[in-house]
Amino acid sequence: MVDGLKSLETSIKIENKPKLSIFKTFKTKREELTGEAIRQRSIIANLATETRHMMNTRTSLAHKVAEKSNTVWQNVYSGIFRDLDEILLPLGIVEEAGRLPLKRGPKALQEHGVPYYKLTETGMLVAASLDELKDERIKILKKFFENHEIEDEEFKKVILTLLSVAPNFIFVLLKKYTEAYVDKKIDRLVPFNSDRLRYALDESMSTYAELLEGFSALTSSDRESVISFFQSNLISKH
């Protein structure tokens, strides 16, 4: 009975959380991201790569997003404000990193300064799942493991080993892991460990394990044939 109540409480907490929209697409155009998704991805990507505090304020983030969408920053500022205050901050993906002093403008801002933001450890994992960051994702994930304590050292070692030889495989895992969080199949992304990853990916993990085990059992010539098959038929040329 107690376990059932705990499970119900956890389910309610997950359902009541705001929902991240980084994978959200239009209903009639499933391959096209919504404006909300693009904004949130842009915020996360910028915070993952920009080290200058002044470039990580709401206004600077609005300028970045507006530049990509070919519009004026004032048109996207309210969306940036909402994404930060109602989604990314409450979810613990972004946190306030400090405040920049102002000599001009409203008195309240002069007294308290303008907030600038940074990614949390959860935010770094989300950033590593974004395709547009490309090779930057390797640096982000390595930084995640350098800066945050991982209890399972063997898990960390395996992930970093695979990151060096098959980075795209790791990024597929991270994307599916983040999607499980977005779909509220799991309540959080950290701590990042084998148990949480296995729970989030379930059937996918079994498929990947089967492929790796089967491939390792092949003879050298058969391995070359399988690699050639993948390269010729299954891997995108784009």
Question: Could you tell me the mean pLDDT?
Answer: 88
For this structure, the quaternary state is: single chain
CA-based gyration radius:
21 Å
Shape: elongated
Question: What does it look like?
Answer:
There is one protein chain. By secondary structure, the chain is mainly α. It has a domain at 1-119: Arc Repressor Mutant, subunit A, CATH 1.10.10. It contains 12 helices and 2 strands; from the N terminus they run ααααβαβααααααα. It has helices at 2-16, 35-49, 58-69, 74-88, 107-112, 121-127, 136-147, 153-165, 167-182, 194-201, 203-216, 220-234; strands at residues 94-100, 114-119. It has a two-stranded antiparallel sheet. α2 packs across α6, α3 (58-69) crosses α4 (74-88) and α6 (121-127) runs antiparallel to α7 (136-147). The termini are far apart.
Provide a compact summary of the structure:
This protein has 12 helices and 2 strands, in the order H-H-H-H-E-H-E-H-H-H-H-H-H-H. It has 238 residues and is mainly α. It is elongated, with a radius of gyration of 21 Å.
Topology, element by element:
Layout: H1 2-16, H2 35-49, H3 58-69, H4 74-88, E1 94-100, H5 107-112, E2 114-119, H6 121-127, H7 136-147, H8 153-165, H9 167-182, H10 194-201, H11 203-216, H12 220-234
Antiparallel strand pairs: 1-2
Keywords:
two-stranded antiparallel ribbon, Arc Repressor Mutant, subunit A, 238 residues, 12 helices, single chain, 62% helix, mainly alpha
